[in-house]
Write a structure and sequence with these properties.
- The structure is a single chain.
- This protein is of the alpha/beta class.
- It has two domains: 283 residues, Aldehyde Dehydrogenase, Chain A, domain 1 (3-Layer(aba) Sandwich), CATH 3.40.605.10; 192 residues, Aldehyde Dehydrogenase, Chain A, domain 2, CATH 3.40.309.
- 37% of the residues lie in helices and 23% in strands.
- The strands form eight sheets. The protein has a seven-stranded mixed sheet, sandwiched between helices. Strands 10-9-8-11-12-26 form a six-stranded mixed sheet, sandwiched between helices. A three-stranded mixed sheet has the order 1-5-4.
- A hairpin with a 2-residue loop joins strand 4 and strand 5.
- The structure holds glyceraldehyde-3-phosphate.
């Protein structure tokens, strides 16, 4: 890539097509508490796009609007609304039959789908995700919600029977925990947030949700859909800093579940502020440093293609991204050459431009943070092996491929979460294995090779280091039916369409000793449908 192309990336951009453009700034003044869209007249935070536009003689981030910076007082208002909706497990929502909760959810999806274009446009403009991926994030989320309702039907069907062990009859179902505080990440502000919030809600919990740092305005079109689909106080949406809002909620000891995808530093501060740690359940998706191991007999073309998309999709801003590549020394030269050539063929530009992969970065300090990692590696003997790698133009950074990295460098250990690809060669397979054993992270790995003996020898030790060993493909979360989790410092709890229903609920049962009185009670309760819980009705 020529330096001039990078320096002109904003100037040479084609304007966004009419249907993908955002014409007016959105001063988002409302928050959702207790079924009411309340107006906020206090301080706000400006929202700037990673896309820069010309102002005078310079290119600056386009202003998209603003959102409320709420205080502890509004968090407490949300808590009160959630408490009264849950009513210590006696509220309408936690006691509602599953069939009716599903109807509320399907109504929400219907209203959500009507907002697709607006949500997708904000996704693209707020975080710089290219248009097809922004659209995919929306569609994947809709599919996730529908799959969740189907999974819950199955769960309910399996629970709609009475079991007998010894002299005890029992009916076992899954019930909610209570109040869930939920925050998602900026790289999947819709999908990953909803992958927490939707199962939490549908299992009968009530939710206080605060959008991520970036990707906030995209929730605006959905606020009314939330308000119109659920009983008041069941879903509350607040805005502001995580520590001031969710942190304040945690301190009350009234939060039952902390559901968060983001960095461990914030998670730990928030989690520790809960005064009753045994009551608090945490479902967390945190940092990862997924390696790729490219063996001597790997299909190099395939490995390069998967490693390019694994390390640079959405500019490397995915928790599942490949964040360090171990390549066998016998092929590292060829691999590096092909990797750099492939990188040079990637289109960079604005997120609406056709075929674009490298786009501007939403976090203001990200280019400088990436530069510090590159400088550290170069100081310690590595090289930027692609032309103009690491060149910065305002919010845009051209990806850098760094070789050879070693254990003295920050890039070897730290999660970069950006467009920098560290490569290291290895002679003995024990090197990358030891790297994973020593790592604080344990999410996934990708191995590339063609010999089943060698792959088998790697699969067995690695499945106990991470939770997903990908063979000849990049690391990824999907398909959403599969478990998504991590060992060590990478996660708490497992998410998938079905697993999420479990993590947001607890088994609870009714047990009756086998005697005449109980037989009569059970029969009357079942025949006359006296209880919503103790029931053998089959959900159609
Ligand atoms: O940021 C982490 C995401 O869970 C990654 O999801 O693998 O589908 O991009 P993905």
């Amino acid at each position: 890539m020529q330096e001039s192309e990078i320096k002109n990336v904003f100037e040479s951009a084609t304007p966004a097509p009419e249907n993908m453009d955002i014409k007016h700034e959105l001063e988002q003044k409302v928050y959702l508490v207790g079924g009411e869209l309340k107006t906020w007249n206090g301080p706000v935070q400006d929202v700037y796009s990673p896309v820069c536009v010309k102002e005078g003689n310079e290119y600056v981030r386009k202003r998209l609007g603003s959102f409320p910076v709420l205080t502890e007082a509004e968090s407490m208002e949300a808590l009160q609304a959630a408490q009264s909706a849950y009513d210590l497990g006696r509220g309408e929502w936690p006691t509602m039959p599953v069939k009716k909760r599903i109807q509320h959810m399907l109504n929400f999806v219907k209203l959500m789908k009507e907002q697709k274009q607006e949500v997708v446009n904000y996704l693209m403009w707020e975080i710089g995700k290219n248009y097809p991926d922004s659209e995919k994030e929306f569609d994947r989320t809709v599919e996730y919600i529908i799959d969740t309702t189907e999974a819950l039907k199955n769960l309910d069907r399996n629970s709609s029977r009475i079991e007998k062990k010894g002299d005890i009859y029992a009916q076992i179902r899954r019930g909610p925990f209570g109040i869930v505080a939920c925050m998602g990440p900026y790289n999947y502000p819709l999908n990953e947030t909803f992958a927490l919030l939707i199962p939490a809600l549908i299992m009968g919990n009530v939710v206080i949700f605060k959008p991520a740092r970036h990707g906030v305005l995209l929730m605006h079109p959905l606020l009314k859909a939330f308000k119109d689909s659920f009983p008041k106080g069941v879903i509350n949406v607040i805005y502001g800093s995580g520590r001031a809002t969710i942190g304040a909620l945690m301190k009350t000891g009234k939060i039952d579940v902390f559901a968060f995808i983001g960095n461990s530093e914030s998670a730990n501060v928030i989690k520790k502020s809960h005064p009753k740690p045994n009551r608090l359940r945490s479902i967390l998706g945190l940092e990862a440093k997924n390696p790729a191991i490219v063996l001597a007999d790997a299909d190099i073309e395939l490995a390069v293609n998967e490693c390019i998309s694994g390390s640079l999709s959405f500019n490397g801003q995915r928790c599942t991204a490949l964040k360090v590549l171990f390549v066998h020394e016998s092929i590292v030269e060829e691999f590096n050459k092909k990797f750099v050539a492939k990188l040079e063929s990637l289109k960079m530009g604005m997120p609406w431009e056709k075929g674009v992969m490298i786009t501007p970065l939403p976090e203001k300090d990200k280019p400088e943070q990436m530069k510090a990692l590159i400088d550290d590696a170069v100081e310690k003997g590595a090289k930027v092996i692609n032309k103009n790698g690491g060149t910065i133009n305002a919010s845009f950074m051209y990806p850098a491929v760094i070789y050879p990295v070693n254990s003295t460098m920050r890039l070897y250990h730290e999660e970069q979460f950006g467009p920098v690809v560290p490569i290291r060669s290895f002679r003995n397979i024990s090197e990358p294995i030891q790297y994973m054993v020593d790592s604080n992270f344990g999410q996934q790995v990708s191995i590339f090779g063609t010999d089943s003996d060698e792959i088998a020898d790697l699969v067995d030790p690695l499945v106990n280091q991470v939770c997903r060993v990908n063979v000849n493909c990049q690391c990824q979360r999907g398909p959403d039916a599969f478990p998504f989790n991590g060992r060590k410092d990478s996660a708490e709890g497992t998410l998938s369409v079905t697993a999420a229903l479990r993590v947001f609920s607890i088994r609870t049962m009714v047990a009756l000793k086998d005697n005449e009185v109980n037989k009569k009670i059970a029969s009357e309760m079942l025949d006359q449908r006296k209880s919503k819980f103790f029931s053998t009705d089959y959900l159609l």
